[in-house]
Structures are given as structure tokens and as C-alpha cells.
From TrEMBL:
Main EC class the enzyme belongs to: hydrolase
One GO-annotated biological process of the protein: proteolysis
Boundaries of every Peptidase M1 alanyl aminopeptidase Ig-like fold domain copy: 444-557
GO MF annotation list: alanyl aminopeptidase activity; metallopeptidase activity; zinc ion binding
Domain Aminopeptidase N-like N-terminal: 28-186
Residue ranges constituting the Peptidase M1 alanyl aminopeptidase C-terminal domain according to the UniProt record: 561-883
Annotated EC: 3.4.11.14
Any single Gene Ontology cellular-component annotation: chloroplast
Cofactor: Zn(2+)
Cross-referenced CDD domains: M1_APN
Protein name, as recorded: Puromycin-sensitive aminopeptidase
Statement: the UniProt record of this protein carries the keyword Metal-binding: yes
């Protein structure tokens, strides 16, 4: 397989001014005709025109109305090359045949539940027709769709509907025109039996936009929350960024077979059904929140991605990091900012930090790839969003907005790079962002150490930072990064200390705002060793470091346990209050893991229990915050901090602490469950979702004890639940412990919901993720269950992905978990390489484990690599994991 490098980027030799597409959708095959107006980038150039194509059969090719002679083109399995194109602007007409019915890869044009739909990002358009399938080739598109009217009554594409009508033989057609230039990856087509929920949105300048959400008729009642989310997102983008929608129509289509979450095709977003359909009975609060965030995300791409797009795929974070940042901010404004930040940072720590420390580590702008699909990663998305957040931290909200405005002013309608975004932020603010661009090119999570000291005579408090970025594949030597560290100082009784001035590099800098002292200041750490000294500090303070997680780093400080308990009780920065508890939990878990490994008895620190008791009992705290604060760090997060990851020890310790907390805080947890029930109808608002979150965390703790009384309590909650959030939480609480109650309630749940594929996926994933011993056999059986289908990505993510998320079972010492995954990856690869390569990634941290496990995992990776006809997708991940 060929590796593609950022440094080799070349502008296209030809531009496409317009593209007229025509689809004849048939039951066996589909005929695609394209008519393209081609212009050379440099007048008179004589370069060949190379078009990408995969699995498409060429029927004809014409230039300026004449069939191309055989000696004037060349065809291979990946390209159609016009060897001697005309020297000026010309018309190129190509007719191809494709077979969407047999397309299980779910990229290009394929069928999902009998309907046609497309997925073109990143390089799927080349599976539809021969094309310069790259984002810097932008054109105006029209799309004519012709199909049987009974089978496919709805025909959709991008832009505005220009014309439609009936044809002979029971057929009909629709003609769409998109007035905005776009790259091929934003093209979309949908044809099928769908109905729509319709609404309107009046933009800030008074234009009326028709909004339509399309699903099979029976699912329409479940689209109310998606419509609410869309309208909220449209309003938010106007209010926060001054960005208005630019067409008269916005369509969303929900499809059950989709490789990722959703796709931002211009005015025709296509969504995984999971992220559109919700009713209180079938969707959890988590599902409602995900729908809000992802509907927002795809809508926000209309400006950050579509109006301004990427020059090449290396720049993916330009649109994805920025749009994730925008959706995070949107969700924060719609709910609790602190809790959203906690959730986002947990995700970063649990998934991105491990990636950045493993064989697949890459900068948010990778230097090379074999298969672009493999770089839709937590690094490009979530770390990319953290990088955008740092601009906002450094430039403040108003400066960030100025930078965004300049970015759109300069680049609307263009395909640009991450430097263009950086330059807009810098120029709009006349800011010194010195070595900030390193965040785009250096992989690895920076390690930052802070040492503090107080000088009572000088009344100064010093913070000495030292930083280093670990070596990552292909990058052994690293430069120091520009790290914004938000800091506050607390008195011993927990009040914020006013900050007036800070010495840095020999100069005293005043940090007041409007003549007033501040309570949080941003230290710009950008040297290997950097010291900041706070002036006028009357007592030894407790520093609250990296408030709001102001940079994606690992911070190691000299805070004592006493300091941390004080921050947990008092910090005015909600995020850091949670963080103090997490640091204490991590320390505690690591020391108990050491005890477990040395066969010492496990004893829980009473101060830790009391700290949590105070939090649970504090009526002034947000309930969702309490739920987060009493949740221990995940097993993966702890394994990540160990020299050699020991899944059995970590699992034993986490289970021990959970049970011990359940025993010692039983009264508090019981009253939490009782006091947070509600007989009101379900509403998705902060107060109610926070109440449910807290009740269900308490229930899970109690049920972990597995005694009859508490199992019955969970059974009662299960039976009396009036919404899916409470029902599935009670089910999960009971299912923690093997036994009859577990079996009965799982069966009952399946029987209730066997007709609803999205709910059945919850049932699959709950069983797959279970840490009950020897779960691999259960999961093997579930592969044969009638509700499972290897061709549906959601089911694979639920069952196979769910299984790999349970460290004790996936990393079982007998190798059964590894063998299960190795076998399944090979089967999947033949159907859907994108999904197979997502699954094989579970192996990538194999070197973190003991020698015995390493040998077992390596064996599976070698088996995969030795397979015939392996996809480039799986090859790239498996070979890089072994390298
Ligand atoms: N921009 C979208 C990316 C996407 C995608 C990429 C590769 C293969 C399948 C895909 N489906 C959607 C999603 C987003 O980030 O908005
Ligand atoms: Zn996106």
C-alpha cells in the first residue's frame, strides 16, 4: 500500500467549474452520467488529467462531445487518465455503472433498509464515478435522479429542487441544483420510502428556511427532539458567531446503516438513525444529549467545513477540531458548562491520551496516511477541539470571535489550511502566538511538572514549570510547547485570592482587568523551564492549576492530599473541584493496585469516603456534578498510568472501592435513590436529567453489593421505570452480578424491545461490556443471535466494540478475547474495511501489557496481516501496531 505525505501536496492541474450528474437508479445496477466543465489551472498546460475511480465500470468517455480514442486515455483499477486532454476549457462526459446493492462498505452509493443513500467523505465519491476526488476541487453541482416511483417516492440531493415529474414505466425524476461551490465529499443523494417532519426557521435577517427530517413513516414521532436540536443550533450559531443559514431548505435523513455518526453534506445531512430517533421510552438522557450535540455539529459544519473547507485531508482538524469545539460550546450553553467540560475531558483522557501514547500517535495534522478513513480519530477531533479552545483561552471570547470573523471574511468559498486559521486568529488580535503552531505538528501529550514555593517575607508565591513531550513514532526529538495554564489561588479556608501582578522573565506584569484584581489568570508557559511569581500574596495559597483544563496536557503537581481535599471542597472552578477528587481517586487506586499485586489486604482511606460523603450530602451542588464527582476514573485510565498495565489488578481494585463505598455510604445512596424518583412525565432538561443521573449512579453503587435487598431495589426501579434512562440504568445495575436475577431481567428486556433495533443494540452492548468472568462465550453466542448482523456497524460497535471496552474480558489471560477479535476482524474486513479497522485498533496498545499477553496479542495481529486480500484500512492499523 502507498503512503501519502503532506509534504508532497500539489495543487490540482485542472479545476472543475460545474458538474452535472444524472443517476438512473435500478434494482440490479445504477447508471451514473457526469458532464464536467474542466479548466486547466494554468492556461495551455499539457498535463494528463488523472481521475480517481474504485469499483466503477466505465461505459463511455467523451471530450467535447466526441468519444475519446483508446490511445487518449488509460484505465486501471484506481484511475481513469486522460493522457492528452485539450489545452483550454473542455467538456468531459463520463458514463459509469455501479452496483449499490452489493456495496457493503457503506461508502459511495449503497442501500440501507431498501433505500439508496451516499457517503462520500473522505474518498467515497470515486466509488460513484471517475472524478478528481479531492477537497480542493470545488464545483457547482446539479443532480438528476430517476427511479421507480413506488419503490423510491422521495428523491433528494443537495441544494434546491429545480424540477420534478413523472416518467413512463412507473418512474419519476427530480432535478436538484446546489448554488454553492463544493468539493465532491459533500455531494449526497438519497432515494427511498421516507416521510418527513416539517418545520420552519426564520433567520436573523428574516429569511424563512424549510426544515425537513426524513425517516421511515413509523419513526416520524421519534424526530421531535432532533428538530428541536436543529432549531436550537441554528439560533445559537446566529447568536454566538453571527452565522446564518444560507439556503431555503435544510434536509436531514436518518439511515440505519452508517459507518460513523453523521455527515454534513451541503443541505442534505445524512445521519445514523441512532443520532436522530428518540422517544422517552426508547432513548436515554445520553442519547438525547448525543443527538443535540451531533445535530449541532453537522449543522455547524455548514460554515466550518462547507463554506470554508479543507485544502487536503491532512487539514481535517481545521474543520473537525473547530466544529467539535463549536458543538461542545453549544451543548455547554444548553446544559451545564462544568459537567460538559468534565465529560469532554474524561473522553479525551480515556481515549485520546492513550492514542497519543501508542503506535498510532499522530499530530492533529498528520504527516502521512495510507488510508484517510483511519485518521478520523479522537486526536484530530477531540485534541483538535482542545487546540481551538486554547485560542479562545488565550484571546478571550471577544478576540476569538474577531479571529473567526476574519477567517470567514478571508476564506469564504475557499479550501484552506490550518495555517490560514492560525493566521486569522493572530492577525485579528495582533497576538503573539509564538510557537503555538507546534500543536499542529507535534504528537504526544505534553508532560508538565509544577513545583510551588511560598516566600512569606517577600509575600510572593512561585510556580516553576518544566515540560517535555514524549517521543512518538517518527518524532523522537520534541520542542517545548506554548501551554496556557489557567491558575487561581485559594486561601486555606477555600476563598479565592485576588491576583494583581505576576513576575515572569524578570518583568512584573499587571494582570488586573478594568482596574480590578482577577481570580484566575492565564500563565503562558512556553519554555522547557518557566517560572511565574505571584506578588502580594499574604498567606501560603493552595494553587488551583489548569482551571477548566486549559490545555491538553498531563499535569503533575506537588499538591498534597490535604490541598486536594480542600480544592475538592471549595474550589470556585467547578471543573477543578471535580479534578481534585479525580487526582485523589487515581492516587488511591494506584496505591491499592500495588497492594493487590503484593497480596496486601485492601483498605480504603476513610478520608476519601468522608470527602465523597460531604459531596453527596451538599444540597448546593448540581446533581449531575455530584454524579460525576462520585464516579471513579475508568479502568483504562488507571492502566494507562501503570508501567505495565494489569487489567486484573485494576479491575479488582475498582470493584473493591465501589463495593466499599456502597457499604459505607449506603444510607446516603439509599436516600439519594428514594429522593430522586419522580412520577412526572419525562422531560429532557437539566434539572431532570441531573436528578436521573444522580439517582442511577447511586443505584449502581448499591446494586454492586449484589445482596437480595439491593437487587430487589434495582428490580423495583426496573419495573417502575417510565423512561429508557431509568429502565436501562436499573437493568445495568442488576446485570453487574451473575445470577438468576440478571438472566431474567435481560430476557424480559429483550422480549419487550425485540422490535426496536436501537434498543436491542443497548441490550447487546450492555452484555458485551459486562465484566462477569468468561464473558467471551456469551458474546460468541450473541454473534449468532437473530438480532445481530455483521453488516450493520451499530451492531458491530455494540457487540464487538462493547466487548473490547471491558478490560478484564478482552485482555483475558487465556487469550480468548484476543482470538475472538482477531477472527471477527478478518470476517468484517471482507464486508466493511472501515469498521474492521476501527475494531482492530483495540489491539494497538498491546505493548502496554505483560509479556504473556503481548505474545498472544501479537499472534493475532500477525494472523491478520498474513490474511489474503486484506484491506488497506486494516493493514495500516495492524502494521503500525506491530512496528
Ligand atoms: N465529517 C463526517 C465524517 C464522516 C466520515 C468519514 C469517514 C467515513 C465515514 C464517515 N461518515 C462521516 C462526520 C463529522 O465529523 O461530522
Ligand atoms: Zn464533523
Amino acid at each position: 500500500p502507498r503512503e501519502i505525505f503532506l509534504k508532497d501536496y500539489k495543487m490540482p492541474d485542472y479545476y472543475f467549474d460545474s458538474v452535472d450528474l444524472s443517476f438512473l437508479l435500478g434494482e440490479e445496477k445504477t447508471i451514473v452520467s457526469s458532464k464536467i466543465i474542466v479548466s486547466p489551472r494554468i492556461e495551455g498546460n499539457s498535463h494528463p488529467l488523472v481521475l480517481d475511480g474504485r469499483d466503477v465500470k466505465l461505459l463511455s468517455v467523451k471530450v467535447d462531445d466526441k468519444d475519446l480514442k483508446e490511445e487518449d486515455f488509460h484505465l486501471d483499477s484506481h484511475h481513469l487518465t486522460l493522457t492528452r486532454p485539450p489545452s483550454g476549457t473542455f467538456t468531459l462526459e463520463i458514463v459509469t455503472e455501479i452496483c449499490p446493492q452489493n456495496n457493503t462498505s457503506l461508502e459511495g452509493l449503497y442501500k440501507s433498509s431498501g433505500n439508496f443513500c451516499t457517503q462520500c467523505e473522505a474518498e467515497g465519491f470515486r466509488k460513484i464515478t471517475f472524478f478528481q476526488d479531492r477537497p480542493d476541487v470545488m464545483a457547482i453541482y446539479t443532480c438528476r435522479i430517476e427511479a421507480d416511483k413506488t419503490l423510491y417516492p422521495v428523491l433528494l440531493s443537495n441544494g434546491n429542487l429545480i424540477e420534478q415529474g413523472d416518467l413512463e414505466g412507473g418512474k419519476h425524476y427530480a432535478l436538484w441544483k446546489d448554488p454553492f461551490k463544493k468539493p465532491s465529499y459533500l455531494f449526497a443523494l438519497v432515494a427511498g420510502q421516507l416521510e418527513s417532519r416539517d418545520d420552519t426557521f426564520i433567520t436573523s435577517s428574516g429569511r424563512e428556511v424549510s426544515l425537513r427530517i426524513w425517516t421511515p413513516a413509523q419513526d416520524l414521532p421519534k424526530t421531535a427532539h432532533a428538530m428541536y436540536s436543529l432549531k436550537a443550533a441554528m439560533k445559537w450559531d446566529e447568536e454566538v458567531f453571527g452565522l446564518e443559514y444560507d439556503l431555503d431548505l435544510f434536509n436531514i435523513v436518518a439511515v440505519p446503516d452508517f459507518n460513523m455518526g453523521a455527515m454534513e453534506n451541503k443541505s442534505l445531512n445524512i445521519f445514523n438513525s441512532k443520532l436522530v430517533l428518540a422517544s422517552p421510552e426508547t432513548a436515554t438522557d445520553g442519547d438525547y444529549a448525543a443527538i443535540l450535540g451531533v445535530i449541532g455539529h453537522e449543522y455547524f459544519h455548514n460554515w466550518t467545513g462547507n463554506r470554508v473547507t479543507c485544502r487536503d485531508w491532512f487539514q481535517l482538524s481545521l474543520k473537525e477540531g473547530l466544529t467539535v469545539f463549536r458543538d461542545q460550546e453549544f451543548s455547554s450553553d444548553m446544559g451545564s458548562r462544568t459537567v460538559k467540560r468534565i465529560a469532554d475531558v474524561s473522553r479525551l483522557r480515556n481515549f485520546q491520551f492513550p492514542q497519543d501514547a501508542g503506535p498510532m500517535a499522530h499530530p492533529i495534522r498528520p504527516h502521512s496516511y495510507i488510508k484517510m478513513d483511519n485518521f478520523y480519530t479522537v486526536t484530530v477531533y477531540e485534541k483538535g477541539a482542545e487546540v481551538v479552545r486554547m485560542y479562545k483561552t488565550l484571546l478571550e471570547s471577544s478576540g476569538f470571535r474577531k479571529g473567526m470573523d476574519l477567517y470567514f471574511k478571508r476564506h469564504d468559498g475557499q479550501a484552506v489550511t490550518c495555517e490560514d486559521f492560525f493566521a486569522a486568529m493572530r492577525d485579528a488580535n495582533d497576538a503573539d502566538l509564538s510557537n503555538f503552531l507546534l500543536w499542529y505538528s507535534q504528537a504526544g501529550t505534553p508532560n508538565v511538572k509544577v513545583v510551588s514555593s511560598y516566600n512569606s517575607e517577600a509575600m510572593t508565591f512561585s510556580l516553576k514549570f518544566s515540560q517535555g513531550v514524549p517521543a512518538t513514532p517518527g518524532q523522537h526529538v520534541k520542542e517545548p510547547m506554548f501551554i496556557p495554564v489557567a491558575v487561581g489561588l485559594l486561601t486555606s479556608s477555600g476563598e479565592d485570592i485576588p491576583i494583581t501582578s505576576v513576575y515572569h522573565d524578570g518583568t512584573l506584569e499587571t494582570v488586573m482587568e478594568n482596574g480590578q484584581p482577577v481570580f484566575t489568570t492565564i500563565l503562558k508557559v512556553n519554555k522547557k523551564e518557566d517560572e511565574f511569581v505571584f506578588a502580594n500574596i499574604a498567606e501560603r495559597p493552595i494553587p488551583s492549576l489548569l482551571r477548566g483544563f486549559s490545555a491538553p496536557i498531563r499535569l503533575d503537581s506537588d499538591l498534597t492530599d490535604e490541598d486536594l481535599f480542600s480544592l475538592l471542597a471549595h474550589d470556585s472552578d467547578g471543573f477543578n473541584r471535580w479534578e481534585a477528587g479525580q487526582i485523589l481517586s487515581r492516587k488511591l487506586m494506584l496505591s491499592l493496585v500495588a497492594d493487590f499485586q503484593q497480596s496486601n489486604p485492601l483498605v480504603l482511606n476513610p478520608k476519601f469516603v468522608e470527602g465523597l460523603r460531604t459531596i453527596i450530602r451538599d444540597p448546593s451542588l448540581d446533581k449531575e456534578f455530584i454524579a460525576k464527582a462520585v464516579t471513579l476514573p475508568g479502568e483504562g485510565e488507571i492502566m494507562d498510568l501503570m508501567e505495565v498495565a494489569d487489567p486484573d489488578a485494576v479491575h479488582a481494585v475498582r470493584s473493591f472501592i465501589r463495593k466499599e463505598l456502597a457499604l459505607q455510604l449506603k444510607e446516603e445512596f439509599l436516600s439519594t435513590v428514594i429522593n430522586n424518583r419522580s412520577s412526572e412525565p419525562y422531560t429532557f432538561d437539566h434539572e431532570n436529567l441531573a436528578r436521573r443521573a444522580l439517582k442511577n449512579v447511586a443505584l449502581a453503587y448499591l446494586a454492586s453489593l449484589g445482596d437480595e435487598e439491593l437487587t430487589n431495589l434495582a428490580l423495583d426501579e426496573y419495573k417502575s421505570a417510565t423512561n429508557m434512562t431509568d429502565q436501562v440504568a436499573a437493568l445495568a445495575a442488576i446485570a453487574q452480578n451473575p445470577g438468576l436475577a440478571r438472566e431474567e431481567v435481560l430476557l424480559d428486556f429483550y422480549q419487550k424491545w425485540s422490535d426496536d433495533f436501537l434498543v436491542v443494540n443497548k441490550w447487546l452492548s450492555l452484555q458485551a461490556m459486562s465484566d462477569i468472568p468468561g464473558n467471551v462465550a456469551n458474546v460468541q453466542n450473541l454473534l449468532k443471535h437473530p438480532s445481530f448482523d455483521l453488516r450493520n456497524p451499530n451492531k458491530v460497535y455494540a457487540l464487538v466494540g462493547g466487548f473490547c471496552a471491558s478490560p478484564v474480558n478482552f485482555h483475558a489471560k487465556d487469550g480468548s478475547g484476543y482470538k475472538f477479535l482477531g477472527d471477527i476482524v478478518l470476517q468484517l474486513d471482507k464486508l466493511n474495511p472501515q469498521v474492521a479497522s476501527r475494531m482492530v485498533s483495540a489491539f494497538s496498545r498491546w505493548r502496554r501489557f505483560d509479556d504473556y499477553r503481548q505474545a498472544l496479542a501479537k499472534e493475532q495481529l500477525e494472523k491478520i496481516l498474513a490474511a489474503n486480500g486484506l484491506s488497506e484500512n486494516v493493514y495500516e492499523i495492524a502494521s503500525k501496531s506491530l512496528a
